[in-house]
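Quick question about two entries, pasted in order.
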Amino acid sequence: MIGYLLQKIGYAFFTLFGVVTVIFLLFNILPGDPARMMLGQNETAEQVAIVKKKYGFDQPLSKQYAYYINDLSPISLHSANKKDYTYFSDKKYTGLKLFNVGESNIVIKAPYLRESFQKNGKKVSAVISETLPNTIVLALSSITIAMILGVFLGIVSAKFKDSWIDKLIQLVSTFGMSVPSFFSAILFAWCFGFLLHNYTGLNMTGSLYEVDDFGNGTKIQWKNLILPAVVLGIRPLAVVSQLMRNSLLEVLSADYIRTAKAKGLSEYTIIRKHALKNAMNPVVTAISGWFASMLAGAVFVEYIFGWNGLGKEIVDALNTLDLPVITGSVIVIASLFIIINIFVDVIYGWLDPKIRN
């Protein structure tokens, strides 16, 4: 199992390296001067030159790429020269100096995602740390709704195969998969947050934390989570229910299930102790894939409901051409996607030991 895990981590490292390379090349071949994007409309030639020198934009593309990898790497090479971009200081790189190599230092540090162009030099890591938890809360809530209801509906659909209950669940699932999230978000916000507001008490927009009316700081508004979580969970719920139904029907037709029935075991016992675990493989894949995509694809839902998450932050960064925030957010999302896939592979290895061979 350890060898299997190390193999997956190795694949993940090379995947993340490729993602970082593609992101760097993509945003550095775009037209426009990053230094001028940072300074806005009233920049001078001297200011542009200072910014280019400070952030290494005056260097060849290959050297900028080396700087970029060096910034992201937890073990980095940094110059002892204050005029060099990679100069190690507590202000830019919070880390531990290991040893010297000539006039440079080998340093262990957290990945440095650089600074926002539009937020007065605020670190991108700080911007992401303020918004990512809200997106994770939203994604976890959505996938929990999808997993619990989807597995339950899938079991019910398989148990009553070809009945009106089965056909109704399949019809609703098909409809749920076909409706885009942005349309569902608008519909739910208008219906439950506006038309039925007096009955539901829900708002059309709102985030997890809101400023207290009496100036006593912020407070958590859990009710603002309900609508975006339900909307974001509709499509994965539909997929999970269909997968659970089909997978469970396939498992229930296996020889060992017929043997269990011949022994006189009840249908409930057969499903719970024998069929459910083996039928969960495609469901685990679907849940993991949807959870990872929720972290990246909740953009429309967050924006429509005014949910202060990473998706909404990415849209705002695109509108203001804040490239460090965009690239940093994409790298964080890609890293989370890879970590989730490794976790799923480990679960697969536990569910089916043959996969580890």
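Here is the second entry:
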Amino acid sequence: MQEMRHKLFLLAVVAGPVLFLDQLTKQVVARLLFLHESVPVIPKFFSFTYIRNPGAAFGVFAEQADGFRTLFFLAVSLIAIVLLLYFLLKVDSRDPVSLVALALLFGGAVGNLLDRIRLGEVIDFLDFYFDSYHWPAFNVADSAITIGISLLVLDSFIHRPARSDSDQAPVERMKGSG
């Protein structure tokens, strides 16, 4: 029970601010900028650009019919949130990197889900570019998701379990026996 409380506390401490900051920044952008308006912050590198993304990352599925797209993304988001909670319950409470990563993913997923429920699309506004190279606009929720995934991948490389002799490829075992 103590372990569960610890995990839920960490979820609230990490995902709560992500969700709050995500929703606050989206509201500010929607109130201060016109749709498709862009305000340079660092010329030729970074702008606040108010767009609405009906698709997924990089506009995937943006061309699909509204009804299908909305139901698809709501279902995928809800499944992802349930899976994240499941993994959060299963991960060892002494594994802070995985716990924080899952909480970041959870906060980001909920932030974008709230947009889809309210608007049928997601507000994006962080716009990075250099010369003619342009990264698709994103938001705080997307950033949290990217950081969470990156932490999980990085942690999986750092904490790889050592391979036993029986796990080694046959060639490696042969080298060690001769």
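Reply: Confidence is low (pLDDT under 50) at residues 170-174. The beta strands are 38-42, 46-53, 122-130, 133-134. Hope that helps.
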